[in-house]
């Protein structure tokens, strides 16, 4: 792509009406931002390779480089005995699992309302109505009546319905002239009403937004001001109604959005390349989202000890969780400083790491090489922290403050022996086995969100985050229901939740498609034309109901099974269906 075309593509704002330009200070921070998210590189922790040639360094640089080296230790093999530090005592502050009584009745709607409470919805209605009034005052041409709490719950129900029933555009849910038409949305609210609510849904008050916007470019400006009222409610609910089990997972999540805002980030390593970066703490056993934070830039965290360090620490609250928890994370977060500080706060940690990270052992004495056989293990212990290298199909580096280097675990691998593939039993370090087992919690969490994720195009960036809040609330509500009752699949749960939000019955017979309402003969045709005109005649229900007369007709409606006149001067078929058509197309 030509440079000019790339520049125009970057500058195109597809999802936001708000323009954003970088100040001179923010331009200086751009390189760090690119390293954080495009390369997953943390300047506070990651360094250039220590394998650089000493001849390329000046004496002063070489002296500085040598002074920063960690103490040299020799790698040990799997046959050497590793002394594990004393295990941390697991002391949660509350009983594990849902903080609700299993004896009470818990419907999908009642569990969802734990996160989107009546008070939060009342505040949301107030702000949405204020935003609509502001838009109309600016000259927007559409009809608006103030939205109520019940109507907003119905609106959310339609959003979940659209996540379960995929169509190419919003308008298709109200279109009744194709074989793919669906009748349900029109029974909840009109298409225009749904659109006007979508345009104006607002989590903060517009007047307060204006005051915050005046502070743009200063330290007092809050990048997340438009989403904070609802975000704080969701975060508190996630922690209040569920206490996680012993093993937790820290990871990042990218909410897709192409808006050109200061909180949008780019990532090369995720399937979603552009969007809002969430740091997430979840329960490894079921994928429950315990807590999350939204990254807004280099100065998101006051500690300023590096993004990977600060992101993990911001999600942990010992007063809420307790102590003795085990945290699992990937190589973006893992560092000796983080793990030792977590251990000092009574949190164990385990994760794969990058060899070039600061303070990790870099000695070549007895280390693995590319020619080492599969299953080879090398380890170094420095106090509570053990660093392990394992030769799988490629070299794996992992460290832990929880496990011993090797405890006898085995894994199966396919290996080529004399031009034939055979199954081999390999030694496997304990931290690797635990990491592979517990990091599956991230897959559980992401799968729950992806099954019925809400991905609508939005004119405003904060509506994208609002939709993700709905995803988090629905997923956590389902997990609470599963823990308490365990008698519903995710599909059944969402079906009942949608019905309750929209005040609809799941067992109500769906209305027939308009394409089924065609006239057909009331009786089977025969070879006798004179008989066809008389056989199968029945009284027209429209003539009987409207005119009180008995008029026989050989025609009936295929969908309704109702006998109706179909003549040039008396078209009861058309008149009787007018009411049905007007309701379906409303």
Automatic annotation (TrEMBL):
Pfam family membership, one: DDE_Tnp_1_7
Region of interest called Disordered, as start-end residue ranges on this chain: 1-32, 41-60
Residue ranges of domain PiggyBac transposable element-derived protein in the record: 107-478
InterPro entries in UniProt: PGBD
Biased composition regions of type Acidic residues, renumbered to the chain: 15-32, 44-54
Residues that span the membrane, as ranges: none
Protein name in the entry: PiggyBac transposable element-derived protein domain-containing protein
Source species of the chain: Cyprinus carpio carpio
Lineage, top ranks: Eukaryota, Metazoa, Chordata, Craniata, Vertebrata
């Amino acid at each position: 792509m030509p440079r000019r075309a790339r520049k125009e593509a970057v500058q195109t704002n597809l999802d936001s009406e708000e323009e954003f330009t970088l100040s001179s200070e923010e331009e200086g921070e751009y390189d760090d931002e690119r390293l954080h998210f495009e390369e997953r590189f943390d300047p506070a922790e990651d360094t250039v390779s220590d394998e650089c040639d000493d001849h390329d360094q000046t004496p002063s640089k070489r002296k500085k480089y040598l002074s920063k080296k960690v103490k040299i230790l020799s790698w040990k093999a799997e046959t050497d005995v590793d002394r594990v530090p004393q295990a941390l005592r697991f002391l949660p502050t509350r009983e594990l699992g849902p903080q609700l009584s299993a004896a009470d009745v818990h419907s999908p709607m009642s569990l969802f309302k734990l996160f989107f409470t009546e008070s939060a919805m009342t505040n949301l209605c107030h702000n949405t109505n204020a935003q609509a009034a502001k838009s109309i005052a600016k000259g927007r041409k559409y009809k608006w009546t103030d939205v109520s709490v019940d109507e907003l719950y119905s609106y959310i129900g339609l959003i979940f319905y659209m996540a379960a029933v995929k169509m190419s555009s919003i308008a298709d849910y109200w279109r009744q002239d194709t074989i793919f038409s669906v009748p349900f949305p029109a029974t909840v609210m009109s298409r225009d009403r749904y659109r006007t609510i979508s345009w104006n849904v607002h989590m903060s008050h517009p007047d307060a937004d204006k005051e915050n916007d005046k502070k743009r470019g200063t330290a007092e400006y809050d990048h997340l001001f438009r989403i904070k009222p609802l975000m704080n409610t969701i975060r508190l609910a996630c922690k209040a109604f569920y206490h996680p089990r012993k093993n937790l997972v820290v990871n990042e999540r990218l909410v897709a959005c192409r808006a050109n805002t200061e909180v949008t980030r780019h990532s090369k390593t995720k399937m979603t390349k552009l969007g809002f970066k969430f740091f997430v703490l979840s329960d490894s056993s079921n994928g429950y989202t315990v807590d999350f934070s939204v990254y807004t830039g280099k100065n998101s965290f006051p500690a300023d000890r590096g993004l990977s360090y600060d992101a993990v620490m911001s999600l942990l609250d010992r007063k809420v969780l307790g102590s003795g928890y085990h945290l699992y994370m990937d190589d973006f977060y893992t560092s000796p400083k983080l793990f030792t500080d977590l251990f000092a706060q009574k949190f164990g940690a385990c994760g794969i790491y990058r060899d070039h990270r600061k303070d990790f052992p870099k000695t070549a004495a007895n280390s693995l090489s590319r020619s080492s056989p599969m299953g080879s293990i090398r380890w170094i212990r420095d106090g509570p922290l053990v660093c392990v290298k394992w030769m799988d199909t490629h070299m794996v580096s992992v460290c832990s403050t929880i496990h011993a280097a090797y405890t006898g675990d085995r894994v199966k691998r396919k290996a080529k022996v004399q031009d034939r593939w055979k199954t081999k039993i390999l030694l496997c370090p304990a931290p690797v086995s635990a990491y592979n087992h517990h990091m599956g919690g991230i897959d559980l969490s992401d799968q729950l969100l992806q099954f019925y994720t809400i991905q609508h195009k939005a004119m405003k960036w904060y509506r994208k985050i609002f939709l993700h809040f709905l995803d988090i609330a629905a997923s956590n509500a389902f997990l609470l229901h599963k823990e308490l009752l365990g008698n519903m699949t995710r599909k059944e749960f969402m079906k009942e939740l949608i019905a309750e939000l929209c005040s609809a019955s799941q067992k109500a017979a769906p209305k027939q498609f308009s394409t089924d309402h065609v006239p057909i003969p009331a009786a089977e045709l025969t070879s006798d034309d004179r008989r066809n005109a008389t056989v199968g005649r029945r009284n027209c229900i429209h003539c009987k109901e409207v005119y009180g007369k008995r008029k026989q007709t050989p025609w009936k409606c295929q969908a309704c099974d109702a006998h109706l006149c179909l003549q040039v001067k008396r078209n009861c078929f058309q008149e009787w269906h007018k009411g049905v058509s007007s309701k379906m197309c409303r």
